[in-house]
Amino acid sequence: MGIAADLLDGKIGAGARAITWLDDGDPRGAEVIKRIFPHTGRAHVIGITGPPGAGKSTLTDIIVAELRAREQRVGVVAIDPSSPFTGGAILGDRVRMARHTLDPGVFIRSIGTRGSAGGLSRSTHDACLVLDAMGFDAVIVETVGVGQDEIDVVNLAHTTIIVGVPGLGDEVQAVKAGILEAGEIFVVNKADREGYPATQRQFELMLHLREQSRPDETWRPPLLRAVANAGEGAVEIVDAIAAHRAHLDESGGFAQRSGLREREQVLALLRERLAREAIAHAGDSILAEVEARKLDPYSAIEKLTGQG
Questions:
Q1: 49-83 tens-digit pLDDT
Q2: For 40-251, which CATH superfamily applies?
Q3: Type and span of the H or E element at 189
Q4: Domain definitions of the chain by residue range
Q5: Do 227 and 233 touch, CB atoms closer than 8 A?
């Protein structure tokens, strides 16, 4: 397939088309993945997550700039809330990162959540594979910021950055949904705001408790300060990203996380396909019985899977 070959040559147009196919569920997207998959597994996938209003997009922007200053090619998958009218991404993140659009070493793509509960759309994983195959050194996935469902990014990323911010009225916001347990790098953004010292102390306490509960953990997550809209903090964050990558390489964790990510994708695709086939076979009538309370959900599953 010509698109796959062009994509492996790093051609931006081919990558953009492949991601569009994957996002739309076009069968040609799956064919591209089949051809490029053996050439993936090299890019460092970095997840950036945190509550709405934490300044994740601005932080992503300065991280991209610092990675480019270190001569790394960077792909960005920005998860945007889906438009309620078209189902497509609202594209806010691409507007905020406009200064990178003419840089051939940066590829930015917004993808709509399309109602995905975990803040990551169905095609995000495959978009990361496309950017990996195109030769990008780092792929940043910036989540939509839906709070308690953000844990999904952990299954995708090698390194997860948790962003907090003073003034949201909840200084222990990072604890939600187990996010504290998942992050490898913690950043308090907008550190020039009133309330920063209190927020910093809360994060320090939570990280201390995490250290106490996980004494065998070999990576100690750093807690960093940033004022992204003033360009402050990028150097320290990218230094921490590099240190975590070195730690993963030394421990064998990089390949392990990559493998687990693909395993999870197989299971996700399997669940999606089996559910679709079961519903297509007899689902509407069975679901109608459940809606009418003539059939309970457990019995419905037994019928749909041929066990009842």
A1: 888 888 999 999 999 999 999 999 999 998 876 54
A2: P-loop containing nucleotide triphosphate hydrolases (3.40.50.300)
A3: none
A4: 1-38, 40-251, 265-304
A5: yes
